[in-house]
Amino acid sequence: MTRKFEGDTLLVATHNKGKLEEMAHLLEPFGVKVVGAGEMNLPEPEETEDTFVGNARIKAHAAASATGLPALSDDSGITIDALDGAPGVYTADWAETENGRDFMLAMTRANDALEAKNAAHPRLAQFRCTLVLAWPDGHDEVFKGVAPGHLVWPIRGKDGFGYDPMFIPDGYDVTFAEMDRWEKNKISHRGFAVAKFVEGCFD
Ligand SMILES: O=P(O)(O)OP(=O)(O)OP(=O)(O)OC[C@H]1O[C@@H](n2cnc3c(O)ncnc32)[C@H](O)[C@@H]1O
Ligand SMILES: [Mg+2]
User: Does the keyword Cell wall biogenesis/degradation apply (predicted)?
Assistant: First the structure.
């Protein structure tokens, strides 16, 4: 098997431990080890774009130009039909507090907004993941994945991260947070996007 990038280590331009663990597990069968932006002491760039791909490009290119290595970023979030696609690219912002991120608060906000609209059930939503592989010469490649499902309240489960405890993927009756992390990878937005990345990067 050959791969487009040299060596067996891939720089993943994220500071999110949950994403990194999922990617490490997804790429391990291909002999790829991942190293996160935090371990490389890279700063967290400001995400100033209003699209997933725009922000994924910012993160990937920042890491590639700082290190001279190809870098894979992940910009992701949840889109809720009854909220016209919110929080979308602002998914992480909904968790922001003076003392850092609080995802119980973020999930409560999402549920409160649905309640305020008296939104019908099932409350359809999609987890979306955009991966950008940026090369030190400035070009990049984009890979996307979507996981459709619906939101439940109260939240359920202790595994996963972010909004996982309120999201039930289509075809299941458990939330992402009630599922084994590796089971989630088989049907998640990130799992589907990584599968496309693998298709594009390995012969
Ligand atoms: O930017 P990086 O450093 O990669 O890490 P981040 O956590 O800031 O990531 P994003 O900017 O892409 O924001 C994505 C948000 O969507 C949430 N999210 C993404 N994927 C998720 C998943 O698989 N399960 C639950 N929540 C997820 C995540 O918790 C963040 O709040
Ligand atoms: Mg971010």
Answer: no
